[in-house]
Amino acid sequence: MAVLPALKYPHPTLRAKCTAVLETNEEIRRIINDMTETMYASPSCVGIAAPQVGYPLRMFVMDVSRKIGQKKNHGLLALINPVLVYSEGEKITREGCLSIPDFLGNVKRARRVIVKGLNPEGWEVEILSTGLEAIAMQHELDHLDGVLFIHRVSSLGTDLVRRKNPLDNILP
Ligand SMILES: [Zn+2]
What we know:
Blueprint: H1 26-41, E1 47-49, E2 59-62, H2 65-68, E3 77-88, E4 91-97, E5 100-109, E6 112-118, E7 124-130, H3 131-143, H4 156-159, E8 160-162
Antiparallel strand pairs: 1-2, 2-3, 3-6, 4-5, 5-8, 6-7
Bound molecules: zinc ion.
């Protein structure tokens, strides 16, 4: 396992539309382990998508229990070829990102989502997420299509703020 350097915006890999993982093999599981270690090594980071560490592949890891304890979340999740199959409600939250360390942004997201995908063993899973986990899921899914939170703020003038405290609100 290794801690990988996180790419910073505007690195082109962060804008790539990532490709599907064709086989959940040892190599994929090694990358997922490195992403997990990298996430836990970054203070208050609750998730990382593969393109953020240089792999334009459709997979991410997340663990919002770091921020909100055990309530209403699944703890550590690793999802491969994830697809959003359901979303409802709306909520505006202030988001940050490891790849955009100097800014936070107000982003409108769904309150509840259902995401289908494969786990690292290749089994199909379906995850119902609410609250912070639902927001992190949508933030991660965006990364797989080269979309970052700055592309989701309704006004760069009013919805983007410079981060004061490095530990402020880091989301994936
Ligand atoms: Zn991010």
